[in-house]
Design a protein that fits this description.
Blueprint (H helix, E strand, L loop, with lengths): L9 H18 L16 E5 L3 E3 L13 E4 L18
Antiparallel strand pairs: 1-2, 1-3
The structure holds zinc ion.
Amino acid sequence: MARALPTLDEPDLEIALLRKSVGSLTAGRLSCRDCGRTPLVGERMYRFKRHGSVCALCRPLRDAEPDAVELVRHFERGHTVRRIVPSAA
Ligand SMILES: [Zn+2]
């Protein structure tokens, strides 16, 4: 006797695809450890070894000096085509 397999109807499939795409968008994204906000391009993130990275708005809430300050770059940085100017030898 054939076993009935679970199936997705159209609205369930749409929701599943939406959740999957949103999950993949947020997977590699920086976020502030305190407020969870995604920093803007050009904004500075303050990295603390013990507490993770926080945004510029949450930085004043911490007394310790950050271990590193990082500039948030556009996600295409390093993947764009660059013009190479030959050097005069
Ligand atoms: Zn924050």
